[in-house]
Write a structure and sequence with these properties.
Elements: H1 6-15, H2 18-49, H3 54-66
Length: 68
């Protein structure tokens, strides 16, 4: 595959029919959500390994936002 610059990619996207752009946006959104969910799951595992639970995390957030 040839190397394209970011500007060239955007130019290609702008020339796409609207239906194709919407399909691309949907796929990128799905990919981002999947990556986010994987990161959440991994960080939840790490927190649990350190003895944190969802409840203790929520309590810490509440204390940070609103004080004791």
């Amino acid at each position: 595959m040839s190397q394209l610059t970011v500007d060239q990619v955007f130019e290609l996207i702008e020339r796409m029919p609207e239906e194709d752009r919407l399909a691309l946006e949907k796929r990128l959104s799905q990919r981002l959500e999947a990556e986010w969910n994987e990161a959440v799951a991994e960080n939840r595992r790490l927190a649990q390994d350190c003895g944190f639970t969802d409840e203790t995390i929520e309590q810490a957030i509440h204390r940070r936002r609103y004080g004791k």
